[in-house]
Design goal:
By secondary structure, the protein is mainly β. It has a domain of 191 residues: Lipopolysaccharide (LPS) transport protein A like domain (lipopolysaccharide transport protein A fold, Sandwich). The protein has three helices and 44 strands. It has a 26-stranded antiparallel barrel.
Length: 717
């Protein structure tokens, strides 16, 4: 929007640059330093006629002021009437924006005038505008006759809008006569007249609709109305026709009262004709800063039934969508507090909606959880340090045991460096936990209970590194503009001890309620690959391109598990993590747990994304947890002929032999327009919470105007 009205406003006042011209006679070059900056004027012939009070410039006329540049064959300024005329191959440049015309006429006092045979190019949004005649009628009022508009660079643009006459009032409305849309030179859409708002700010009005088709439910048409309520608030109202399902309404409300106080709320409702019941969902995000640096944040997610997230997956925000797919739940949190240099206070409420169970009555909620934490700091300016915290949690649910829990866990530790090589840190801390159980239908818990324990740890680590010049791997260094590489190896060995405590009479609300006896050694190493950029700026610096971390524990006390014969297994699984971040071409993350007894992986996750300079991309993901998860997700985007991309992705549950979802599509990208087709093929889940469905979507984007339909997420990978 910065230069959108360059043609309609600036071009009528730029010739005021001549106004300071007060010389007479025949001059070829002059410089004036008055007004808003120095003005350089050059011409083959520059003269002043005293009787008529007229300045004339002929032959290669050039005028410069700042980043403004004008050239033409002729120019004339009447000092009496303040009429200014320029003609003959007039070219006006401001930055990268260019106006070409055959003739300009303007009055310097009234700022009114005309431009003939104009061509305007606005670099910022690649606008190409032509007009046989453009006229300024008054302040912020303009008229264009026989004009056209496109964002295409070609001489014969693939699309353009033309208008017989257009009258515009800035911050008001535009009235167009005979607006016509041309596609490949063929008139495809025509209106006798058109009325539209002309504002530099957000504009209230209808948004372009989205069109699709479901083989199961029929055609889909999604329409929306945008309401620019105030400068700090807006909303979008949607009305979608979903074939056999019926009509679905939605409201999205956004606000940003200050940079620290902002948020949005989304509401959806449908009288679903397929299941014959009302279904709804709402999602609210909010953050706010209070005086004295207190803050409040909230993220509330709720759906009416356990199938909503499968039927209307597009309604869910990003984090809620991930939780619903991977954890089978929705989490709502409201939290706030304050952070100091050495302490922090946090109060939080968490509510969970279980999407697997039919009833949410026995799902445990935390209403509320309050904690006060001390960050690591010196103890009375001694070599000793301390940290720790105190917390209170109230557990609530409709059915089942509820309770209160208080936890106090201070920690004293001593960091030291030996021989300037080894880093040693030892810590010890008592832990006191109090419980008060209520509404226990089984009578198993007796009310007030407590648990006392202690946690002691020691860790010894070191860091060894080597620096390599970029020439060692010149191709990779040149690709990522790295001057030096540093490879580090960080071995570590640690010890942890927690005594046996009697916990059988304590309720179980979460994993903090059962602290296992621990007498174990943990050992492993971490390797890092760090690159220093060739040119370092304010935001640049050493970047971690890769990391490998492997560790394992050995129990000196109870075994981690026992085999079928009762023999103890004292070695834990081997935990590993590897990731590469050679963006934008390669990124990968792998993590897993390997059993030394079974000789296989108990847990394994891998995600790899590869791209090239043509913008091809391959994405693959594997998730595995023995007996619980086994699935593979993959996708690819391939550039075939120039501008044509083919893409596809699939999600498959190997554990249940379930094709979750396949997506196929194609997208053609021209210089000023994009056309895409997407097919979504959903499979029926074993529990039938997701039904088999086939959907088709078409989307079109015209550069500078907007989109019709929704682009596939994978094209933005």
């Amino acid at each position: 929007m910065r230069h959108r009205w360059f043609l309609l406003s600036s071009l009528f006042i730029l010739f005021t640059l001549f106004y300071p011209l007060l010389s007479e006679g025949k001059i070829t070059n002059m410089k004036v330093e008055k007004g808003e900056g120095p003005v350089d004027i050059e011409a083959d012939e520059l003269s002043f006629e005293r009787e008529r009070q007229v300045y004339e410039a002929h032959g290669r006329v050039e005028v410069k002021r700042g980043n403004l540049f004008l050239k033409g064959d002729h120019a004339q300024l009447n000092m009496t009437t303040k009429d200014l005329t320029a003609w003959g191959n007039v070219v006006l440049r401001e930055g990268e924006d260019v106006l070409e015309c055959e003739r300009m006429e303007i009055n310097l006092d009234t700022r009114l005038g005309k431009i003939y045979q104009a061509k305007l190019f606005l670099k910022d949004q690649n606008f190409h505008i032509t007009s046989k005649e453009a006229e300024k009628l008054g302040e912020n009022r303009y008229r264009i006759r026989e004009g056209s508009f496109t964002t295409c660079d070609a001489e014969r643009p693939p699309w353009k809008f033309t208008v017989k006459e257009l009258e515009v009032t800035l911050e008001g409305y535009g009235i167009a006569k005979s607006p016509t849309f041309y596609l490949e030179g063929i008139p495809s859409l025509y209106f006798p007249w058109g009325l539209f708002p002309v504002r530099k700010e957000r504009q209230t009005g209808l948004l372009l609709p989205q069109v699709g088709y479901s083989k199961k439910y029929g055609p889909e048409i999604k329409s929306a109305f945008f309401w620019a309520m105030t400068k700090d608030m807006d909303s979008t109202l949607t009305l979608d026709y979903l074939g056999k399902r019926g009509f679905k309404e939605g409201l999205e409300y956004r606000y940003a009262f200050t940079p620290e106080t902002k948020g949005q709320a989304n509401f959806h409702f449908i009288d679903d004709q397929e299941v014959h019941k009302n279904r709804y969902a709402f999602f609210v995000q909010h953050q706010q800063k209070f005086p004295y640096d207190f803050y409040l944040k909230g993220n509330i997610n709720h759906i009416s039934d356990n199938r909503y997230h499968r039927d209307f997956d597009e309604d869910l925000p990003g984090e809620a969508k991930i939780d619903s797919r991977s954890r089978g739940q929705l989490r709502s949190t409201v939290f706030g507090g304050k952070n100091w240099d050495q302490f922090s206070f946090l109060a939080e409420t968490s509510v969970f909606q279980d999407l697997i169970k039919k009833s949410n009555d026995d799902t445990l909620q935390k209403l509320p959880q309050v904690s006060f934490q001390a960050h690591p700091q010196s103890l009375f300016n001694t070599p000793l340090f301390f940290d720790g915290g105190v917390s209170y949690t109230h557990f609530w649910r409709e059915k089942g045991v509820e309770g209160h829990r208080g936890d106090f866990f201070p920690r004293l530790f001593y960091p030291v460096r030996l021989f300037n090589v080894l880093k040693v840190e030892s810590s010890v801390g008592p832990r006191e936990t109090l419980y008060k159980s209520v509404d226990d239908p089984t009578g198993q818990y007796k009310g007030w209970e407590s648990r006392e324990t202690v946690v002691a740890t020691t860790e010894v680590s070191a860091e060894f590194f080597r620096v390599y010049d970029a020439g060692t791997v010149s191709k990779i260094s040149g690709l990522y503009q790295v001057a030096k590489w540093m490879h580090t190896i960080e071995p570590m060995i640690g010890y942890r001890y927690t005594p046996r405590v009697d916990q059988k009479d304590l309720p179980v609300f979460d994993d903090q309620d059962r602290i296992p006896y621990s007498n174990e050694i943990t050992y492993g190493f971490t390797q890092r690959l760090i690159g220093k950029p060739v040119k370092e700026g304010v935001t640049s610096g050493p970047f971690e391109y890769g990391k490998l971390k492997i560790f394992q524990s050995y129990s000196l006390g109870d075994p981690f598990t026992r085999d079928s014969k009762g023999k103890g297994r004292y070695f834990s699984n081997i935990f590993g993590e590897l990731w590469w971040n050679f963006s934008p071409y390669l990124s990968a993350k792998l993590d897993g747990e390997f059993s030394p007894y079974h000789g296989n992986f108990e847990v394994g996750n891998a995600t790899i994304t590869v791209k090239d300079k043509r913008n091809d991309a391959i994405y693959a993901q594997y998730r595995y947890a023995r007996g619980n998860i086994k699935e593979v997700n993959a996708g690819a985007r391939i550039k075939t002929i120039p501008s044509l991309y083919l893409f596809g992705s699939f999600r498959y549950n190997l554990l249940d032999n379930w094709k979750v979802e396949n997506i196929y599509g194609a997208e053609y990208q021209a210089q000023c327009w994009t056309l895409g087709v997407t097919v979504e093929d959903k499979g029926r889940s074993p529990d039938r919470t997701q039904e088999k469905e086939l959907k088709f979507h078409v989307y079109v984007n015209l550069l500078g105007l907007g989109s019709l339909g929704k682009r596939s997420y994978f094209m933005g990978l």
